[in-house]
Write a structure and sequence with these properties.
Layout lengths: L3 E4 L5 E7 L2 E6 L2 E6 L11 H7 L2 E7 L2 E6 L6 E6 L2 E6 L13 H10 L5 E5 L5 H8 L3 E6 L2 H14 L5 E4 L2 H10 L4 E6 L4 E3 L5 E3 L4 H11 E11 L6 H11 L5 E9 L5 E10 L1
Parallel strand pairs: 1-16, 4-5, 9-10, 9-12, 10-11, 12-15
Antiparallel strand pairs: 2-3, 3-4, 5-6, 7-8, 13-14, 15-17, 16-17
């Protein structure tokens, strides 16, 4: 039986239903339908109910790319809020919205732990939701991603919240970590949310299962003795057991929890997202 760690809904986000390879979500006042391979079960609500509720429906062309059917000629960009932090939702040419809402479990952990005296390293930082949570606590934030568009989106989220001081780093994550180790820098909190696959610098193919051991080894050297590490993975090849066994090697004397990060829909469907590790 899976050890699921459930992320909750909040006022501006709700997983309404899921099934048939799709999920029905509410972002503030707008509702979207988009693909999710983990929604392999039958939905609770009928297709007619989904269609009636949805404002936007994503139509896949190839992979994550496609187009959004905009049923009401509505704006494709709007803001939602989480515990006082504003985040930008933007529907572009992929199924992604700029926010992984299940990460709110980690956002809460960040806000509870980080202080203005601490440094937070956000690796594979994407559009910066976690960075915004740390900035809300006036922490020293380093946000690293190899995507220019992700950093641009992070800047927009910082602007929305009138946050200053987020250090944006456009660089390969592994190279950055290796350089920071040479500089003898350490961080009180590190979050890693590496992609399952992709094309890295110089056109190199990236597969997480070939890099997870290295990433954990480098993180162990960058973390302060009492620091915390949060790792989320969205690869079917990286299980909670994989993360547990790796943590036991590189963090042998630390307390940690692992499990499957999941969300339960309003209709009662359990939707898995990926594996989660929290060292504290």
């Amino acid at each position: 039986m899976k050890n699921r760690i459930y992320a909750s809904h909040w006022e501006d986000y709700e997983l309404i239903d899921a099934g048939n390879g799709l999920k029905l979500e509410r972002w503030g006042k707008y509702i979207t339908v988009r693909p999710d391979v983990n929604a392999y079960f039958q939905p609770q609500l009928s297709k007619q109910e989904w269609d009636r509720k949805a404002h936007f429906i994503f139509k896949e062309d190839k992979g994550v790319f496609g187009t959004w059917l905009n049923k009401g000629n509505l704006p494709l960009n709007w803001d939602i809020e989480f515990e006082g932090v504003r985040l930008s939702v933007f529907l572009k040419n992929t199924k992604h919205t700029g926010i992984f809402p299940e990460q709110n479990l980690n956002w809460k952990a960040i806000k509870e732990f980080i202080t203005s005296e601490a440094s937070f390293l956000n690796l594979f930082g994407y559009t910066g939701a976690s960075s915004m949570m740390a900035l809300a606590n006036q922490a020293n934030v380093f946000h690293v991603d190899s995507s220019k568009s992700a950093l641009t989106w992070t800047k927009e989220n910082a602007r929305l919240n009138k946050f200053d001081g987020c250090k944006l780093v456009l660089e390969d994550v592994v190279l950055f970590m290796e350089r920071e180790i040479k500089r003898k820098h350490q961080y009180e909190l590190i979050q890693m949310d590496p992609p399952a696959w992709g094309i890295g610098t110089k056109g190199k193919k990236w597969q997480l299962e070939n890099h997870i051991d290295l990433l954990m080894s480098l993180a162990a050297q960058l973390l302060t003795p009492k620091g915390q590490l949060i790792v989320s993975t969205y690869s079917a090849k990286i299980t909670p057991l994989t993360l547990k066994e790796t943590a036991e090697i590189y963090f042998p004397n630390r307390t940690f929890k692992t499990g499957m990060l999941a969300t339960k829909s309003t209709t009662g469907k359990a939707l898995d997202h990926g594996s989660l590790l929290h060292i504290f």
